[in-house]
Amino acid sequence: MKGNCNDSTCCETTATARPVEAPRTFRPNVDVVEYADKFVLTADLPGATHESIELNFEGGVLALKASVTPRTPGNTNQVYREYAVGDYQRQFRLGDDVNPEAIGAEFANGVLTLTVPKREAAQARRIEVQAR
Amino acid sequence: MLLARRIPMTFDVFHTDIDRMFDRVMQGFGLPRGEHPFPALNLWQDGEQLMIEAELPGLKLEDIEIGIEGEELTLKGRREVVSAEGANVLRQERFTGEFVRKLTLPIPVNAEKATATLRDGILTITLPKADHARVRRIPVQTRG
What we know:
Strand order of the largest sheet of chain B: 1-2-8-7
Low-confidence stretches of chain A: 1-19
Strand content of chain A: 35-45%
Mean pLDDT of chain B: 77
Order of helices and strands of chain B: HHEEEEEEEE
Strand order of the largest sheet of chain A: 1-7-5-4
Order of helices and strands of chain A: HEEEEEEEEE
Distance between the termini of chain A: 76 Å
Helix content of chain B: 10-25%
Oligomer: heterodimer
Largest sheet of chain B: 4 strands, antiparallel
Shape of chain A: elongated
Shape of chain B: elongated
């Protein structure tokens, strides 16, 4: 965290002399909800765009990656920091009872929603009890 | 074997490495894991203005109340979870519910000229500095 400074010459010097930070990768926060016929994964990816998201499914593992461009505004001096900006990466091992061919992905307002349908055979079925 | 069926879906290959890295980053700010406030904030300034950035994925600008009183900035809002009946929550890491964050601004600002944008879950508030807080360049004359 850099100190607060109101002197323009000092701020400009700090901005040009700022060391280039090594790119970081973060693990996004994810909710996983199971429905009768599907799983829904919701991932917070603030700063990502739909073009920057890469989803791959291989060997039963669903890999999520999103690149994020650093956003330090212009010639400014950071006065307070609670989070760092970097790419997102996370992997999920899916069970055999899902249909990877039919995974749906939507991105809106920095939130990625993945719909992972279950295979027919894996869906819970209600068995009607007949009265005699 | 109901329990076993629930676990494979939420198995994280990258869990430990990234968690360790995250803990290290957060330690630098004196915020133990699990106790960091929502939303997290970053602040920048130049000679003319103060810029505040907050990560608010899933929200729209109209869902967020931004207030400036004197040198205190307040961010208020609510993030809802979509949940359906009969659904089984296997993992919940995302923040939900109401949030209020207050921040004492490091310098006086002109609150009437504040602007805010929200794009891809990133809220950016631009606050022009109050006239008396702006940086003025004083030209230094040389005498020959």
